[in-house]
Design a protein that fits this description.
It contains 10 helices and 12 strands. By secondary structure, it is α+β, with helices and mostly antiparallel strands. An 8-stranded mixed sheet has the order 1-2-10-7-12-5-4-3. Helix 4 crosses helix 7. The radius of gyration is 20 Å and the shape is globular.
Amino acid sequence: MEPQLKHDRAREIKEFRETKAGVKGLVDSGMVRIPRMFVHDEKVLAEYPTNNNLLVPLIDLKDLQYGDHQRKEIVDQIRGALETWGFFQLINHGIPISKLDRLLECQKQFHEQPTEVKSELYSHDPKQSVKFFTTSSLDGNQPTDWRDTFSFRFPEDILDIMVYQQFAEDTLSGLFSEALGLNRDYLSRNGWLKGGRFACHYYPTCPEPHLTLGARQHSDPSFLTILLQDDVGGLQLLHQNQWVDVPPTKGALVVNAGDFMQLISNDKFKSVKHRVLAKSDVPRLSAGCFFNRSSKPIGPLKELLSDTNPPIYREIHLSEYYTDYTSKWTHGTRLIDRFRI
């Protein structure tokens, strides 16, 4: 029976992809039961409890311009958040809220246009720089996420994303460098925040949200991720073996360290697992900017190492990481652990 089950799943995925309509196409068809390829193991869904009493750090940048003392306080807050949570929300970051609202509106227009228009970009080819797709199983057995994505590589002046990149280079790179105890221009000089991938996620309404996830638990394959979410909610991070909501905050940017930041910081900064819940009443939008480029192998920064803090990771090239990401990732595993010494 097992080979037949695997064959049926492969056929189900194939037939779904051939529609080029994504998850939203299923919803538009009027379906009331989700296909089996989207159903997650109930034990996985209930693996950790949710704690509604914990609050993700909220960091205010409004005083950043007023002097070294205020800057040091902000750097200390960022350091504490990344060492403990791996996540924080930023307010008063200087990016006009009107631009952020426009970004969400543009991606909503893309995802809600007729299938025959957006299907021209439908692809699961990892080499295609601009594409529309639905996340599917990485190894043929993992459940598919209830989510459609429009994605493109930098530098593409689409949806005004260059403001994200400028903010990362001009502001966050310095704050992160100082939080690591390094010179302010350290990350900027290495060019790790100069390019990557932009993903516009659309989570359609789901008739059976208790059976699936908008995004399964994972950590980000990036140095740094900047995320804009709408007011629907559903993003959760894993903290102290509990799911904690990342509540929508008007005008805020969600910032988190990715696996590569954890690697170069030698575990000083944490890349934590997170997920997105499916919703039955309203679709959700988020726009993520993933900084994940390096032309050279990366490893723990020598400036952070000592006899009492030896390297715990070997050097890797990002292509090696992504080869494992597309072929060996399974639920509950952390790819970064594969590169420990």
